[in-house]
Amino acid sequence: MLTIGFPAAVFGTNCYVLAPDAGEECLVVDPGIGIEETLRQVLAEHRLRPAAVLLTHGHIDHVYSVTPVCGGETAAYIHADDRYRLHDALTVANPGLVAMLEQQFGARATWRDPEHVVDLKDRQRLDLAGLDVEVLHAPGHTEGSVMFSLETVPDGLEESAGVRSTVLSGDVLFAGSIGRTDLPGGDHAAMQRSLREVVLPLPDTTLVLPGHGEATTMQHERSTNPYLQGLTA
């Protein structure tokens, strides 16, 4: 699987581009703030055509560029519980954050709802751009936070010891940490359930591509992440 990840201009939010190979349709995951030019370069270099935009959750640092990326019939996919966050995302965002963005970029922040939005549900399987993606609902960071699971790994890792599948974990699981639960829509108890019932059952052979920071593996997180210690699936 062709896998390209790069950080957004603000908050280091990871945007990922996934495709079976160069010259194919692709999936864009979490197009954050200021990613448009880098994304255009990636698509041109690898001759890729976006088939869909997958959103791990509705926070503005993960969805800000969704409408510029979604064009024509290209839809945005988000869990139904976070769908409301795509309706004028600036209104539900922290006002201080919006002011900071306007100061940093020297322009008034604007938002336009994507024309085509598809609601996701737990354990749904998506056949998009030649890739088979399973939706794992994992609330806690937001009501509709999800992870996207694929039974394949990025090109070049096929022979790496024990890495056999990939999960894009959004802001559920990071290397050495987890997503905050103190923001609007966050729920500590829900996050604990998600960690026990959704994250811990993932095989050690899972490559984790998080919404922020470096990639990791479930084997490493199971043994070192303090937020997973003491939990049992």
UniProtKB/TrEMBL annotation:
Pfam families, sorted: Lactamase_B
SUPFAM superfamilies recorded: Metallo-hydrolase/oxidoreductase
Keyword Methyltransferase in annotation: no
Cofactor: Zn(2+)
Record keywords: Hydrolase, Metal-binding, Zinc
Domain Metallo-beta-lactamase, chain residue ranges per copy: 12-212
CDD domains, per the entry: metallo-hydrolase-like_MBL-fold
InterPro entries hit by this protein: MBL_Glyoxalase_II, Metallo-B-lactamas, RibonucZ/Hydroxyglut_hydro
Molecular-function annotations in GO: hydrolase activity; metal ion binding
Protein name per Swiss-Prot or TrEMBL: Glyoxylase, beta-lactamase superfamily II
Organism: Pedococcus cremeus
